[in-house]
TrEMBL record:
Protein name: Dihydroorotate dehydrogenase B (NAD(+)), electron transfer subunit
The gene coding this protein: pyrK
Domain FAD-binding FR-type: 1-101
CDD domains, per database record: DHOD_e_trans (cd06218)
PROSITE patterns the UniProt entry points to: FAD_FR (PS51384)
Cofactor dependence: [2Fe-2S] cluster; FAD
UniProt cross-references to Pfam families, sorted A to Z: DHODB_Fe-S_bind (PF10418), NAD_binding_1 (PF00175)
Protein's organism: Piscibacillus halophilus
CC cofactor note: Binds 1 [2Fe-2S] cluster per subunit. Binds 1 FAD per subunit.
Entry binding sites for FAD: 52-55, 76-77
Length: 253
């Protein structure tokens, strides 16, 4: 596991209250699967005691760079949005268990993302698309919140849903699934718990994987701040350590 400083190569607004930051450093060499995350130290001094988890949207081993997409939701991400090229961020990671992609071939795969649950699916789609037919359904609040549509379209048949109908399909990602009427071999999803629960129920007979978003404390499974009900002998799983990716039959949402 890497713990140290990464250099900010770029940090820009890409949609309403949504930023893309590119970091460079040796943590990239240790990323093993799409869907993993990093813990970033926010602010100076003791203002923000806990690190913040951010999903890895993409990474480039040759360039030694990783990309993170984050939404402005408080003082911490506001501080992050003001980091400039050449500054350093203290990063711990990569953390968590990501999506399994090895050995998946010649399948029709559905990828479903909602809001800030979209980023960790981008590199997943890039990898899966090399040997599979991938369909992506991405949900956003409105047109001005949409990001990465063209990037996803390079690797997957991409459909957009907005809650207010200002772009693409009006409604939720599950509404798009219903309208498509297509059978899939597997699905992968990341987004708010409500969305994941609806997808889990809608695709109950399909083999699926869910990446669960949750506020975390330590990020390494020591503090029990991010547990989720599960079907195992303990009755729960730690999202940061056991996940954030789980088989759809493994957790209860």
């Amino acid at each position: 596991m890497f713990r140290g400083d990464l250099e900010v190569k770029s940090n820009k607004l890409i949609a309403s209250d949504t930023f893309e930051i590119v970091l460079q450093g040796n943590v990239v060499q240790q990323i093993s699967r799409p869907g993993q995350f990093v813990h970033i130290k926010i602010g100076e001094g003791s203002t923000h005691m806990l690190r913040r988890p951010f999903s890895i949207a993409d990474y480039n081993i040759k360039a030694n760079q990783l990309t993170i997409i984050y939404k402005l939701i408080g003082d911490g991400t506001e501080w992050l949005s003001h980091r400039r090229t050449g500054e350093n961020l203290n990063v711990l990671g990569p953390l968590g268990n990501g999506f399994e992609v090895e050995g998946i071939k010649d399948e029709h795969i559905l990828v479903i993302g909602g809001g800030v649950g979209v980023p960790p699916l981008y590199n997943l789609v890039k990898q899966l698309s090399t040997q599979n037919h991938v369909t992506a359904i991405l949900g956003y609040q409105s047109k001005d919140a949409i990001f990465y549509e063209q990037k996803f379209s390079r690797f997957a048949d991409t459909f957009i849903a907005t809650n207010d109908g200002s772009y693409g399909y009006k409604g939720f990602v599950t509404d798009v699934i219903d309208q498509m009427g297509v059978k899939f071999d597997q699905y992968y999803a990341c987004g708010p718990l409500g969305m994941l629960g609806a997808v889990q129920q809608r695709l109950i007979d399909v083999d699926g994987y869910l990446s669960i978003e949750e506020r975390m404390g330590c990020g390494v499974g020591a503090c029990f701040a991010c547990v989720c009900p599960a079907i195992n002998e303990k009755g729960y799983v730690k999202i940061c350590q056991d996940g954030p990716v789980f088989h759809s039959k493994e957790v209860t949402l």
